[in-house]
Every structure is written in C-alpha cells, then in structure tokens.
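Deliverable D5.2: sample structural annotation.
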Amino acid sequence: MSVRPLRILVLKGGDSSEREVSLSSGTRVSAALATRGHTVLEADPSGDPLAVLPSAKSVDVVWLALHGGTGEDGTIQALFELAGVTYTGSGHLGSAIAMDKDLSKILFRAAGVGTADWWMLRAGEPTDWRTPAYVDRAVAALGLPIIVKPSKQGSTVGLGLVKATEQLVPAIIEAFKHDDEVMLEAYVPGRELTVGVLGDWVMPVGEIIPKHEIYDYECKYTAGMADELFPAPLPPAIRDEAQRQARLAYAALKLRGCARIDFRLRPDGGLFCLEANTLPGMTGTSLVPQAALADGVDFPELCERIALDALRIRGEQE
C-alpha cells in the first residue's frame, strides 16, 4: 500500500525511571520511519513538556516512544488533546487507567478477564503492614510467593518476589520508594505469555522464558536474559483464548493504538492477566516488534502502521 510521506515527531526520553529504554525505543523508531520515506523529527520532553508543543503542532502525527511517568500515564496525552495534536497510543483516560494496576484489575474482573487476587497499600493511610499480624493475614489470603510492586510503574520497576514471610515488609518498603501505592498480588505459577494489539489487529501470542524466576527489568532489557518465542507453542484453544482475553482487556481499559497485554498461564490452563502496557517498548529486545514480525510485518512497517492508526483515529473523531 502506498502511503504519502508524513512529517512525524518522535518523542523519546522523558523523566521517568525508564528514560534509557525510551531513548533506545525512540532512536530505533525514528530510523525505521525514515526508511519508509517519512520526514522524522525528534524531541525529548524531559524538564518542560510544554516546550515540545510548537514542534508537535507542526507535524502530522507525534509518535510517542515514551515509557512510564508523565509520558505514559495520560498527562502528555491530555496536553496534546487540549492542543489538538494527533499522537500514537491510547488516550488520556485509557493511559491513566492502564498505568494504575489496581484500577486495571478491577476492570479486568468486570469484563470477565482472569486476574490474580490482590491487596492494596496506600501511603499515608493508617495501616499495620509492618506488623507480624498483617504479614500473617496477607500470606493467609494470597499465599506464597507474593508479588509486591508499585501500582503505577511500568517495566517491573520496584517489583519483588516474596517467598518467605520475613521478606514481605522489606519488599513493601522497596516498592514504596517508587510509588505512593503498592500492590500485593498472588503469584501465578506457570508460563509468561504476551499479546500485542493494534486496533483490530491482535498479534500472535508470544511466550517469554526469562533466565530469572520472574520476568524482571534485567530480563526485559538485557539481551540474552530471556528467550522469546513467537508464535508461542500453545494448543490452539489456549492461543485463541489468550487473544480473546487480550481483546477484552484492551476494550475494558478503553485502549487504542498499539498496546501489549501480559498474561500468566497456569499448568491447568487458567489464564491470568497481569497488566496492559499502553506504550510498549520498541527496542531490539522488545516483544511487540517480534509479535508483528511473526505475522509478517517488519519493524518499519509496524512503526508506520502505528502512525497511520493514530491518523485514522483522529479522522474518525473529527
């Protein structure tokens, strides 16, 4: 399909803990879009996001290669909507909901998407989470291991796997360094699956086999620390169910554009959604580009499709 050359601004960097990953994603996206004949500009919104507005308003579409923080939580999306800027990814509401793991899981359950049991802790609220009694109650309710993670961070920042009662309080303390809300989630044993979604296109299911016990930050972004299989070696029924639940999760969180929905598959075949990522990584080790390639779409075409999808959505809204 012939596509008219576009002026595209790629936003990368930002001020979140995932800045370096974002820089890598953005550099790769810019190079890919250039090979498709588009005019590509780049900007880093760290420090003063308002400073990028003049450039953003001068292009056809802003390609968001930001990860975490105000680049992914709906803040910059709301700014662009107020300014009439076309941008890739989910809108401000979907972005905010997906970043909040507690709200996401509530909506997953309401939509019939499987998700593990969880407890929430909030900074400033009266709680006894440092006491043995609280630890005992949490373990009785959620079992061991327990996953402890910041509620509004991405890329497993601050995540801990608690295998013994004495590890729970230190894990909570660590998670609170990254967020004012912390989630305690029942650990789901089994296989790690992921499904990329771009509008009506549900990509092949992938499987991640990390070198560590959990798919942590190092395994995500260090070459050789995880094996990724696309498509995943799954029975057709489980493959289809993962794609069906990915569609449901995408709709439940009011997502649009390109997103990645992550699951755990128990040995008994049960699927449990972990989270949705509204601006998935585009680095050399990232999952969505591998999923697209398994469907015959190379990286430059994927990046172009994401830009065109944003223009399509904008056109439908006008």
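Annotation notes: The two ends are 24 Å apart (CA to CA). Residues 14 and 115 are 31 Å apart (CA to CA).
The annotation will be released with the project's public dataset once the embargo ends.
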